[in-house]
Specification:
This protein is an alpha/beta fold. The chain has one domain: HybD-like (Rossmann fold, 3-Layer(aba) Sandwich), CATH 3.40.50.
Length: 182
């Protein structure tokens, strides 16, 4: 008897939307990933909607060739609705993101390196500067709602044009509003 292998196959690219849809702008990562599912018709891409972070994120990063994470970003240095991108490679210092998802991404990447886990060759974090991540509301604020379609366009453009070749690793947050045209 042959027993089929039910283990999920790893994809070339995993796109993860993080957030809590009940907390206003915090749910934008999940909303963006849902739009990306509708726009990107590529069987080598896995889409994940996660309302958890921290160590639970670890399993989704290990073994994928490339990974995109979409989340609400609250830097306080940019106006709400600003589109941001950070490109991370295994050779660079992990991005430091203050997150509402327990431990931050930099700590997860550091732990993965320590354990010798196979990290993605490239991890890109896309975000929108959030206005409100604390109010119980099932919709995003106006500025963030208006920015979501622009971020979806930017990610689609990057993925469809082999974003690894287009987007340099700069070890800093990039404001990408100017890369999106209306």
């Amino acid at each position: 008897m042959i027993i089929p292998n039910h283990a999920p196959q790893k994809k070339r690219l995993t796109i993860i939307g993080l957030g809590n849809e009940m907390l206003s702008d915090d749910g934008l990562g999940i909303r963006v990933v849902r739009e990306l599912k509708n726009r990107l018709d590529d069987r080598s891409v896995a889409f994940e909607e996660l309302s958890v972070g921290g160590l639970q994120l670890f399993d989704y990063l290990i073994g994928t060739e490339e990974c995109i994470i979409v989340d609400a970003i609250k830097t306080g240095t940019q106006p709400a609705g600003t589109l941001l991108r950070f490109v991370q490679t295994p050779d660079t210092e992990p991005v430091k993101i203050t997150s509402s998802h327990q431990i931050d991404l930099g700590q997860i990447l550091g732990l993965a390196r320590f354990m010798g886990a196979p990290l993605p060759k490239r991890l890109t974090v896309y975000g929108i500067e959030a206005d409100d991540i604390a109010t119980f509301r099932e919709t995003c604020t106006a500025q963030v709602s208006q920015a979501i379609p622009k971020l979806v366009d930017a990610i689609c453009n990057d993925v469809q044009t082999e974003y690894a070749e287009r987007t340099p690793c700069t070890d800093e947050w990039q404001i990408i509003n100017e890369l999106v045209t209306d």
